Amino acid sequence: MKKTLSLVMVAFMVLFLAACGGEDKANDNAEGGDSGEVKKIRAGIGLNDAHPQYQSLLEFKKIVEEKTNGQIVVETYHSSQLGDDRTMTEALQLGSQEVTIPSTAPIANFVPEFSVFDFPFLFPSEEVADKVLDGEVGQKFLDMLEDQNLVGLAYWENGFRDVTNSVRPIATAADFKGLKLRTMENEVHLEAFKALGANPTPMALGELFTAMQQGTVDGQENPYATINLQKFNEVQEHVSNTHHIYSPFVFLMSKSFYDGLTEEQQQIVKEAAVEAGKHNRELNRETNEKSLAELQEAGMTYTEITPEAREEMKELVQPVLDKYTKEIGEDLVQEVYDAIEAAQK
Ligand code: KDG
């Protein structure tokens, strides 16, 4: 009888201690004034789930959920399931979505200064782009997003863009003549392709495959990884290494959501965006490198742009750069050029 009683008491003690442990855990989560409520991030992108951008978004999810002990959960959406770059950015402003990672090109519709990053032939290499974007100049642009109710947490990489089409191989500027090319929704892209002699149309990524399939457009431009993973080779014949624009991504968060996080949570999402961004740049570069060979194996013709042909393209687009340099502000554009020069030393 005595034995049974002490067993019951031990069991009671074990249960009591376990309950105390649980309470401690709840208090840990409450650190920083958090009420303990679970917050949800809906994160959407335009590219599909095979793309490095989505793989790195999963990395962001893993880091955030682990570091917040599940107090912030991340739901991920790919393939424009939540909309295109512009509509998702608008949803962030309204607070009906928390994260998206658009190219800088559509961001220029919200903060026009971002156009400078889409100047053709601006960045000479990925490494220089990393230094400029991760440095003071890059931060200056991220700070400009706040007035638009957006928080820029980090730069990720879309990469050097290359032209594909189904009419003819592109070797020189003359080959652009009359080509119906899809561009992102960005004035610099649009005007640069007009200056090269093409007939550009802005269009959301989600509509592009069908537009190429049905011949509404003859071609498009994107990094090799995207051309390959979005299977554009199924509806495109020729690819050239125009490398005409280095396209950064910006990891955007809704400002109203960010402001509602505790300081500790803000730190966690910021660090996670940067950390997952490193993963993204690495994976993106690996994928780009192998994608060109895979596109050729899949039957696309590949044309190399000679340095002379690229020089001619640069000259043709120069008036567009002059026009937008004035619009953005000469001093700010000069700051970007100076940072690019410094990054090469
Ligand atoms: O997820 C990012 C995409 O929505 C988009 O920015 C990709 O480069 C792109 C394009 O051409 O639309």
Radius of gyration: 24 Å
Query: How far is the N terminus from the C terminus?
Result: 85 Å
Q: Spans with pLDDT under 50 lasting ≥5 residues? A: 1-34
Q: Strands of the biggest beta sheet: in what spatial order?
A: 2-1-3-10-4
Order of helices and strands: HEHEHEHHHEEEHEHEHEEHHEHH
Described by strand count, sense and barrel closure, the largest sheet is:
5 strands, mixed
Number of helices: 13
pLDDT averaged over residues: 92
Structural class: alpha/beta
The count of strands amounts to 11
Beta-sheet strand percentage?
A: 15-25%
Bound ligands, each once: 2-keto-3-deoxygluconate
- Percentage of residues in helical conformation: 40-55%
Q: Identify the overall geometry.
A: globular
Describe the model.
- By secondary structure, the protein is an alpha/beta fold.
- It is built from 13 helices and 11 strands.
- The N and C termini lie far apart (85 Å).
- 2-keto-3-deoxygluconate binds at residues 45-47, 53, 85, 101-103, 158, 184, 205, 222, 247.
What's this model, at a glance?
The chain contains 13 helices and eleven strands. The chain has helices at 2-30, 52-67, 85-94, 104-107, 126-134, 136-144, 187-195, 205-213, 224-229, 255-259, 263-297, 307-328, 330-343, and strands at residues 39-44, 72-77, 99-100, 150-160, 162-165, 180-183, 199-202, 219-222, 238-240, 246-254, 301-303.
Write the layout of secondary structure elements.
Layout: H1 2-30, E1 39-44, H2 52-67, E2 72-77, H3 85-94, E3 99-100, H4 104-107, H5 126-134, H6 136-144, E4 150-160, E5 162-165, E6 180-183, H7 187-195, E7 199-202, H8 205-213, E8 219-222, H9 224-229, E9 238-240, E10 246-254, H10 255-259, H11 263-297, E11 301-303, H12 307-328, H13 330-343
Parallel strand pairs: 1-2, 1-3, 6-7, 9-11
Antiparallel strand pairs: 3-10, 4-10, 5-8, 5-9
Helix pairs in contact: 2-11, 5-13, 7-12
This protein binds 2-keto-3-deoxygluconate (KDG).
2-keto-3-deoxygluconate is lined by residues 45-47, 53, 85, 101-103, 158, 184, 205, 222, 247.
